[in-house]
Design brief:
Blueprint (H helix, E strand, L loop, with lengths): L1 H20 L1 H13 L2 H23 L1
Helix pairs in contact: 1-2
């Protein structure tokens, strides 16, 4: 469980750094996501989740 909490903390750190360093690009990215069809976002989310799971699986063995 502690690994999960650490992972969530790292997500927040990475997102925070991106928003702090590139606020205009972050706004454009959010605006673009709002215009993207739900189906495309869903597929991108599933692919991202599978890739993340594969990375964890490979690193954790």
């Amino acid at each position: 469980m502690s690994d999960f909490i650490v992972a969530l903390g790292l997500v927040l750190v990475i997102e925070g750094v991106l928003f702090a360093a590139f606020p205009t690009a972050a706004k454009r990215s959010i605006a673009h996501a709002l215009e993207t069809p739900d189906g495309s976002l869903r597929i991108l989310g599933i692919v991202s989740a599978i890739l993340g799971l594969a990375v964890v699986w490979i690193v954790r063995g």
